[in-house]
Amino acid sequence: MKKDIHPECFDVTLKCVCGNSFVTVSTAKDIHVDVCSACHPFFTGAQRFVDTAGRIEKFQRRYAKGAEKKAATKKKAK
Question: Longest C-alpha distance within the chain, in Å?
């Protein structure tokens, strides 16, 4: 490898807002993050859908009508 072209790597402690921290290797000396795997809703199972203006219900109603039509068509065909 060529000398003096590669960045210096440090052992750093990555710190999250929730208080979780762990050691990793990075070229930055200090790392602070807002969300980590200990507090992110996807990883903790506390994921919620924010429903604004009933969009989820609107989607469910729209596709429920299509499912009802398919079921009625199948009954008529028999």
Answer: 79
